[in-house]
Amino acid sequence: MRVVVAPDKFKGSLSAPEVAAHLAIGLTRAAPGTEVVQVPVADGGDGTLDAAVSAGYRRVPVSAQGPTGEPVGTAYAERDGVAVVEMADVSGLRRLPGGRPAARTASSHGTGEVVRAALDAGCRRIVLGIGGSASTDGGAGLVQALGGRLLDAGGREVGRGGAVLAAVASLDLSGLHPALREAEVVVASDVDNPLLGPRGAAAVYGPQKGASPDDVVELDAALARWAEAVRVATGIDVADRPGAGAAGGVGFAAMATLGAALRPGIDLVLDLVGFRAALPGADLVVTGEGSLDEQTLHGKAPAGVAAAARGLDVPAVAVAGRSLLTPADLAPTGIGAAYALTDIEPDPARCMSEAGPLLERLAGLVAADWLTDDDEERSRDTTSRVRGERSRPPLPQR
Q1: Is residue 114 a contact partner of residue 141, using CB atoms and an 8 Å limit?
Q2: Where is the composition biased (Basic and acidic residues) (predicted)?
Q3: Whose C-alpha in 84, 215, 359, 371 is 20 to 30 A from the C-alpha of 115?
Q4: How far apart are CA 78 and CA 181, in angstroms?
Q5: Which residues contact 143 (CB under 8 A, 6 or more apart)?
Q6: Dihedrals phi, psi of 50, to nearest 5 degrees
Q7: Are 3 and 283 in contact (CB under 8 A)?
């Protein structure tokens, strides 16, 4: 039997490569002789760098500014002139000092510094994962780090953060990094929000980053001022384009000033890590993430992995720390069954602290259901399996 293991991270517990490794241990222990191919994945947010490195990309350390200006050690992943940049690792919520939100002042500048470092090193394809951002600055910091100048009415450069964009009168792109003329920039994003208005970056995502109702009004007005300056400087208007509001408006700046294309995060990552190339000959795909919930159904990693597997008629199952979805919820995604740590360990704290060993046990249940003909083994621990009915397909004939 051949199994492709392609999980996302279990946030706060295990990275995607760690999840894959524990699943591989559990599967081979329960079904000796099984070939397990580990392909950790991500959806463009936290863990994108880890997924790329696990797929053979080289981690290149970079020192850059965090969302509020403090220096952070981050990296990009590189292979054959392609650089993978993870915004969450440099300008993300988890990089906020003490976890304190900075809705008005957080900047995407550090992300631009990492992109600049990759361009300086000769990379000419930039894959930018923008999930998990801490800023609502319309991507202005990204543009500043790459050589753009934001000027007020007196010709002075403005500072960083979303609130200061209210002072922007013009944008000078003459100093933009010259390599961008020939580089391809692709942004991994799963949201379709515009930059402005009730579905815009400030209104929808600002409160998640600590913005008060008054802050949202201020930030939306400042982003409108920024959008007008960009329109005048570039001659194009992408503020209403789906995805412009991604990552506090980084999607807008990337499209308008860098000529970036936006692609669904999981699709882009699956291409990067060679997931589809691993599918031919597979008997089963095991995917998963920390929580299977409503968000899973809208472009998160497990749904994307299952969709790709279904395209080649390979059955897929999911593992999770917890599952809030019924079999009926999961059926349209192509996920044939879900297995949760909380089904074998009711204490959430132990599910977090002992996730690795518990995943190995859970993988044994997957193997019993999908990889063996041992009826006695399948009959054990039935109360710990996924809620609801599911049918196990016949084992493939070799």
Answers
A1: no
A2: 377-392
A3: 215
A4: 20
A5: 112, 150, 171, 173, 176, 253, 257
A6: -60, -40
A7: yes
Residue showing tokens 């209210």: 166
Q: Which residue has the tokens 């016949």?
A: 394
91, 75 in Cβ contact below 8 A? no
Name residue 185's amino acid. V
- Where are the chain's structural domains? 2-39+274-384, 48-265
What is the pTM (predicted TM-score) of this model?
0.89
Q: Residue 372: its pLDDT value, please? A: 81
The per-residue pLDDT for range 71-124, each reduced to its tens digit, is 999 999 999 999 999 999 999 999 999 999 999 999 999 999 999 999 999 999
Fold (topology level) of 2-39+274-384? Rossmann fold (3.40.50)
Q: What is the pLDDT of residues 166-183, one digit of tens each?
A: 999 999 999 999 999 999
For residue 84, the tally of other CB atoms under 10 A from its CB is: 32
Tokens matching residue 161: 């953060």
Report the top-level CATH class of 48-265: alpha beta
